Fold these 4 entries.
Entry 1:
Amino acid sequence: MAETVFEELQRYVHFSEADGALLRAFRPLARPRFQEIAEEFYARILSHEEASRVLHGGESQVGQLKVTLVAWMDALLSGPWDEAYWQHRYQIGRVHVRIGMPQHYMFGAMNVLRAGLGQVALERVTGAALEPTRAAVGKILDLELAIMLHTYRDDLLAQQARTERLSTFGQLVGSIGHDLRNPLGVIETSLFILRGRAGEDERTRKHLDRIKDQLDVANGIITNLLDMIHDRPLAAEPVLLGEVVDGAVAAVRRPPGVTLEVSGVAELPAVPGDPVQLRQVLVNLVENAVFAASPAGAVAVRGRRTGAEVLLDVEDSGPGVDPATRRRLFEPLITTKERGIGLGLALVKRIAERHGGGVAYSEREGGGARFTVRLPC
Ligand code: HEM
């Protein structure tokens, strides 16, 4: 039978049955110290600002994670180190990928375990068994690190495949988008003529208005799609964001239950950029915010300046974005809307970056979402 990835990795680090026996013998000696090692493990993460960012759940989450880490160490030293073990550890690796934990923290984290378990071995294992036990601990932790990194690699490969799919998809969508413009144009012209003939018939006018609305929606989707595919040349003129925000806010419909507050944007200095594309950024963000806050809630657009950058926050009091979606929020075709196709935020990111800035998500104080667009000024 062909060698599995796990067997191949075991062969690479020279992990043998003798190592397994040593780990099992070491387990009862190390067990009383698991809690202490888990404390050190999370103290290290919490003392590091960037690494601790993925711990959103506060003390209760850390408490729970310590329990899972103790169980993890127990399984580490008891085995059996078979395919089921690999699968289980692989799933744990996937959890870290899913929450967007940068893989470089894995090395330092694994070293805390290495040092902790190594120290216990020094103190508790006596005689000739000491060195082989320490070596066995080293090998199994190398294997664990390899499994963790493997999950990141698989994720990267999946992303690459996605990008390739998207590129093919992009070409297809581009041509469909172009082809749809013509029939939509014909409908629009005929609609114009029908409007002239509809006279005072209330119902007919209402339905013609409806057709026009939906036509605008369809055209908007096509514009977004085509903008996504072709990088339109950027105009570079001084843009007053106050005006752009006002225009965008006026273009977004919102139910009466959703309040909208704009502040701090009129005072902002002009930024070099493309007013049409920046308007698109604001329209997309405000549309999303209104959608999230509907049927009743609050949306706010706030401007501020820090150093050489202008920041625009678009906030809503909706449910916020769940951690699993956050990581891929700005990728095309990721949507939480039943009728959306997931281009709005991808386009926002693309336009902001083409202006030398960016966009980031954070949680709004008191619940909800906040998108912050950065633009150099
Ligand atoms: C040697 C490295 C590590 C090991 C052995 C480890 C172990 C674990 C285990 C066993 C779980 C539970 C998985 C499950 O629910 O099935 C977990 C989840 C988690 N780990 Fe780690 N971890 C490591 C590194 C890190 C680092 C460096 C961080 C933070 C910087 C971190 C943050 C988290 C978080 C936030 C979760 C919970 C994710 C969720 O359920 O939403 N881990 N880890």
Entry 2:
Amino acid sequence: MRILITGGAGYIGSVAVEMAAAAGHEPVVLDSLWRGHAGAVLPGVPVHRVDLRDAAAVTATMAAVRPDVVMHFAAVTLVGESVERPLDYFGTNVVGGHNLLAAMEAAGVGRLVFSSTAAVYGEPEVIPIREDAPTVPINPYGRSKLMVEQMLPWHAGAWGLSYCCFRYFNVAGATPTRGEDHSPETHLIPVALQTLLGQRDALRVFGTDYPTPDGTAVRDYVHVMDLVDAHLLALPHLDRPLGAFNLGTRDGFSVRNVVQAVEGVTDRTLPVVEVGRRAGDPPALVADSTRARIELGWDPSRSTLERMVGDAWEWHRRHPNGYRGT
Ligand SMILES: NC(=O)c1ccc[n+]([C@@H]2O[C@H](COP(=O)([O-])OP(=O)(O)OC[C@H]3O[C@@H](n4cnc5c(N)ncnc54)[C@H](O)[C@@H]3O)[C@@H](O)[C@H]2O)c1
């Protein structure tokens, strides 16, 4: 299949490009390169440098590429930044999502895989979280993703869009050639590894008084290759609207668990500073992903903490400056 991968120069999108090509598909990238890296894109894959907020450019690209399916990873993704700059989040994520849908309808492209997030649940009352849990986002990032999710059934009804929404929990790990290079980096595992590489003084642990077994916040980590597997597994099912699937493992790991895994894998001591809770950080976010396992046959077998940290460490050691210079 020809797959238009928006955000294909970003962390997850670039792995999707790599794995889609390896599976025999024909990936094409749409990315503004605002936060992505040209060097992350598999060589030979066409890159359309387009901003999703530019409706005319998105429409022209869709008409030129005419993909069989769109995987929509492109977004702005930082929770704190979304509170400070909601216009950017509703602009890129909601207006950009709307522009993409309009371009798809105009070009007769009827299949979409949408990257959503656990942030749509806000502060869930029941753990592990099922897809039918209340969606009550507590920041513009989560709200912007939920707004796009909520548009999709209307497009399905009006012009026959087939889609699925994947609600990712914490994505981690790397392939041998592609890894996580965000600027700013806010994710725990790469921040810990950057600390070991001397790029930061210490890892700050936000909150040690949560109602969790060791007092630190608990999150559900999924290997980026397992995550992309789900996208490829969904393709044969995209003949109808599929709704939302959680992508996590149900194994919650605390910040202290991650620190121990990083120290174990790297055989180094991680300097840690304990500080207060961050506003808006729920104590635990853990997914019930039964739906993806049963309906798509998804098996996140790479998503052990050791493997995710080990693969990320390999990539960071080999690319201490990320994609800079590539
Ligand atoms: N990384 C995670 O743990 C995680 C968790 C939940 C959901 N997600 C979702 O997964 C998707 C990918 O996340 P990621 O970590 O790879 O992010 P990323 O920042 O690495 O990649 C996003 C890409 O989108 C591009 N982009 C941003 N604004 C754009 C615009 N206006 N027009 C065109 N392209 C634009 C960036 O240049 C970048 O290449 C996002 O939709 C994110 O919300 C990620």
Entry 3:
Amino acid sequence: MIEIENLTKKYKNLTALDNISLTIKSGELFAYLGPNGAGKTTTIRILTGLTKLTSGCARLNGFDIVHDELSAKRQYGLVPQSINLDRELSVYENLYIHGRLYHMSTKPLKKKIQELLNYVELSERRNTLVKKLSGGMKRRVMIACALVHSPVILFLDEPTVGLDPGMRRKVWALIKNIQQAGALIFLTTHYIEEAEFLAQRVAFIDEGKIVTVDTPENLIKQQGEWAIDRIVDGMMETVYFDSREDADNYNSCMDERFTFRKVNLEDSFLALTGKKVK
Ligand SMILES: Nc1ncnc2c1ncn2[C@@H]1O[C@H](COP(=O)(O)OP(=O)(O)O)[C@@H](O)[C@H]1O
Ligand SMILES: [Mg+2]
């Protein structure tokens, strides 16, 4: 469980996080969706003890991140936004070092590494140097590293940035599997489809503030079900409809080019913040 109460982070004149409160249940897959600079990484860095908070508090499974720092740190695994692997070492060596950092003894650690390599489908690459791996493989090694000590909370900061669509889906499947094995997953993303596809609940974050928190279904429903995009006087205009019939009626009196599509989380983000996620 993650409990965040009135969390604020200031960097000189900039308020990177502004009075954030959130509760995320054990086993939940929670997405934090917002544009670049919204405060997503700052939130993760504070919860994982890498950055100091300015005010407020947070607990991981009941352990205060400031007052019970060591216990709080044992609760989570972290997959940061940038690659944190040792490029000159093999996949296996990276995982081994990670386990040793958590004081795991050799036998259970070796067993766990074998299990995780199978899990992320990299058993055949165990002796490959990290610098020889593709971006998607590196991402999967990072996820395996974060899981070595069997944490119950997994933080994933933009886990699919830079991956091609096929690899992105593979990582999505892996994330779902990890959740189904019982972990709470806190995921940040600026990809609409990622939040929509994976998350049970989504928080929209913009300029350090949480705009809303709800299930993707409810957030989308607020806008309608169908959308028509068209260009009017050089500007993109989107019209929303509750039923396909209404949309079809509207459509029949238009002769210019248009796109007919289902409403998505981008529409709801736009409605609430006045801007697009990316
Ligand atoms: N170490 C820092 N010093 C000053 N400003 C920072 C620092 N880290 C982040 N920021 C600022 O805080 C805001 C939120 O950043 P970040 O949490 O990285 O956003 P996101 O991960 O959503 O893209 C941005 O305006 C960023 O420039
Ligand atoms: Mg970030």
Entry 4:
Amino acid sequence: MDFNLEDLAQYEAYLRGHFLLTTGRHSDQFLLMARLTERPWALKPWAEQLARLLEPYRIHTVVGPAIGGIIPAYAVASHWADGRVLFAEKDEHGTMRFKRGFQLQPGEQVVVVEDVVTTGSSVDKVIALVEQQGAVVKAVGALVDRGHDKPHWNSRGYEAVLRLAKGSIPTWDPAECPLCRNQVPLTRPKA
Ligand SMILES: [Zn+2]
């Protein structure tokens, strides 16, 4: 199967319109991956493929950023008999933390799995958290990369960023948004 944005459209996980992103920027395309993960059978081939791509690393501890990364991380790790899933979540100050007793051992190797990466800032925060514990991120896997290749993706210590679907989706500052100029109603699909 091909993994692309159009495949997600059938589940309404890939939308076209006029969207307010969490960054405050606007876009004409939106990824609402909860609509994919709401159907475990539809997520399954995506998770299988990501597990296959991560398999050469032989690392079966997966860290996912809450909320979007939790279900994909679980779906990937469920392919391994010794799979383990931890999720990182923001505390009241917006700092990414392990709660619920989740712990990594010093030197332990992990992979990070996320649903959608845009600038990679969430993944970066997870990597920093893992490193704080003395553990090491060896690879990052994402269902979708909606951003452009950023230099920082290659400047961290890990070996690879694996992405099943790639898009180069434009975003605009509201003041420069062409859809605002045409008075297209703005929506927030996650709200
Ligand atoms: Zn706009």
